[in-house]
C-alpha cells in the first residue's frame, strides 16, 4: 500500500494533494496550481474548460452537476488526449468512446447527459490520459 511521506512531498509538491471541489458556472482556464481539484459543471448553458499544457502529475476531475442544454467542452493544448469513457448503458451501439490523440472532449447537451457523469484527466508531462463514466450512449464525443 502506498503511503505519503515528506520525501515524496518534496518531489511532487502539494499539487497532487489539492482536494478542492469547485463549482463552475462559466468558462474556465484551469491552472497547474488547481491540480487535484474536482470541478462540478453547474451551468445549464454549458461552456468550455481549457486545460493547461501537460505537466507531470497534473490531475483534474470534472463532474456534471446539471444536465446541460448546451455542451460542456474540455479542451487540451493539442491532439494529446488518450483514453476511454465507460458507458453504463449496454446495447449494440457505440459503447465506450475512446480518444486516440484528440484535442477536445464534449459532454453532449440534451437528454443524453446525466447528473454525475464524470471524467478524470491525468498527465505524464506529455499527454493527457482520461477515464470516466457516463450513464447513456452518445453522452461523450471526442474531436
Describe the 3D structure:
By secondary structure, the chain is mainly beta. Helices cover 5% and strands 38% of the residues. The chain is built from 1 helix and 12 strands, in the order αββββββββββββ. It has one helix at residues 6-12, and strands spanning 21-24, 28-29, 38-41, 48-50, 59-64, 72-75, 81-87, 98-102, 104-107, 118-123, 128-134, 140-142. The protein has a 7-stranded mixed sheet with strand order 1-3-5-10-11-7-8, with no helix packed on it. Strand 10 and strand 11 (128-134) form a beta hairpin. The longest helix is centred in the N-terminal third of the chain and has 7 residues, at 6-12. 25% of the residues are buried. Residues 1-12 have low confidence and may be disordered.
Give me the side-by-side strand order of the main sheet. 1-3-5-10-11-7-8
Radius of gyration: 15 Å
Span between termini:
37 Å
Task: Look at the structure and give the mean pLDDT.
Answer: 86
Quantity of strands, as a count: 12
Poorly predicted tracts of residues: 1-12
Task: Report the major sheet.
Answer: 7 strands, mixed
Anisotropy-based shape: globular
What is this structure's SSE topology?
Layout: H1 6-12, E1 21-24, E2 28-29, E3 38-41, E4 48-50, E5 59-64, E6 72-75, E7 81-87, E8 98-102, E9 104-107, E10 118-123, E11 128-134, E12 140-142
Parallel strand pairs: 1-3, 2-4, 3-5, 4-6, 7-11
Antiparallel strand pairs: 5-10, 6-9, 7-8, 9-12, 10-11
Provide key terms for this protein.
143 residues, mainly beta, seven-stranded mixed beta sheet, five-stranded mixed beta sheet, 1 helix, 12 strands, 5% helix, disordered N terminus
Amino acid at each position: 500500500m502506498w503511503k505519503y511521506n515528506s520525501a515524496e512531498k518534496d518531489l511532487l509538491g502539494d499539487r497532487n494533494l489539492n482536494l478542492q471541489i469547485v463549482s463552475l458556472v462559466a468558462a474556465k482556464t484551469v491552472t497547474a496550481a488547481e491540480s487535484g481539484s474536482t470541478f462540478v459543471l453547474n451551468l445549464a448553458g454549458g461552456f468550455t474548460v481549457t486545460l493547461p499544457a501537460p505537466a507531470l502529475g497534473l490531475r483534474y476531475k470534472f463532474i456534471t452537476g446539471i444536465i446541460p442544454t448546451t455542451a460542456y467542452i474540455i479542451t487540451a493544448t493539442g491532439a494529446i488526449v488518450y483514453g476511454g469513457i465507460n458507458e453504463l448503458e449496454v446495447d449494440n451501439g457505440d459503447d465506450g468512446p475512446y480518444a486516440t490523440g484528440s484535442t477536445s472532449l464534449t459532454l453532449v447537451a440534451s437528454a443524453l447527459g446525466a447528473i454525475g457523469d464524470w471524467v478524470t484527466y491525468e498527465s505524464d508531462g506529455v499527454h493527457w490520459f482520461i477515464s470516466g463514466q457516463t450513464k447513456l450512449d452518445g453522452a461523450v464525443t471526442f474531436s
